[in-house]
Amino acid sequence: MSSSVPIPPDAPLCVDALRILGTSITRESFLNHAVQNVFDANTSGDVLTNVREAAAKLQRHDIFEEIKVYMDSSRTNPDAVNVTFELKEKGKAVYQTTLTTGENEADMTGAVSIRNIFGGAETATARFAFGNRTKAAAEALVGFPVQGSPDVKFEAFVKGSFRDFSMINKYDERSKLAGVRIKGTSEFGKHQLAYAMTHRDITAQPKSSATVRADSAQNVKSALIHTFVSDTRDNVTMPTKGKYLAVTQEFAGIGQRGDANYFKNELAAQVHQPLFGDLVLSTGAKFGLLVPTKDDHTHVNVSDRFYVGGPLSVRGFKMGGIGQRDGNDAVGGNIYFAAGASLTAPIPGAAHLPVRAHAFVNAGNVANKAKDTPLKDTLESLINESRTAAGFGLIFHHELARVEANFCIPLRFKSSDLPQHGFQLGLGINFL
Question: Bacterial surface antigen (D15) domain location, by residue (predicted)?
């Protein structure tokens, strides 16, 4: 007859020896750095915690297909264990194709990656894409974990693209950029700090306005960009609970370089709360402010301004359909807001299908804050003159995209706006 006695978590225990098996590519020094904390344990609870953390750290590097951990008693120390990590490395080459979606756009993306190049979780990736708004795009990047951490990564990149902006303004843009970025993950969310030098060539289309033609030329932007995202939603495309917060700051004109000189802030927030049964209340808000940083250079390029309106922004208006216009083009602005609320529920008899019904109300506005006008006065005018719309429709959701088919009723708008009465179709990820 045999029995087992559970070991108290505070019982004295340490790690006497550690072995790592199954690797042929990954460097020994990299592995030792990843698992070195297991030797800091002094109790049985610490041993289990540190071993789990070491295994999780190795897993987050995404270079191992399988990780197994074994522990056995030490022959020389009764209060110690020997730990063995048995690893199975992933192949170096990765080929991937996927469909990505943005604001009423869909792109087919392909990528070729080589991982764990020098045995320290280094990566090199070549990526290309094309779609209805991105006519062509290509990117190459190399990256490596900072000090062996899977949660902090440094990348250097170059990218080129050819995009059609005619859904809002009648112009095309060819851009080439090079830069570096650091990406990190913490308990609060994900941070990214990037610097990029961008060369842009804006070409006016035949029906473009004088506003667009004035910016139809080559220009250079030197910018430092920080983004922070915290996302606790249970589903990205059709959340039923959780919160989302995204904050972006861009400082253009770094090192007195380039033609763009401004400080730009954007914030987007969502809250999703189940009410009763399968009924869900979703609320969202967006806000942006752009401030020129040179008194003698206050002009903002058409590519850098804010635009409001559209199925992912303020439903019931065409894309960029809120605010002043110059012929076929939206003028945009340097300050905006958008806010909305919706109730979603499954369709009776079709709860098993990836489709829900919803009713919504939303509002928004965009304006140009004059240099000498107090921010408070601009905000009051922005809110008092806000455009509103309401409606109802169907939401079709998939892990890659969300599609909305809505019947919209614009409630408040101006003669310069482009309200969209009736049917409106939207494709993307983050709707208001």
Answer: 116-431
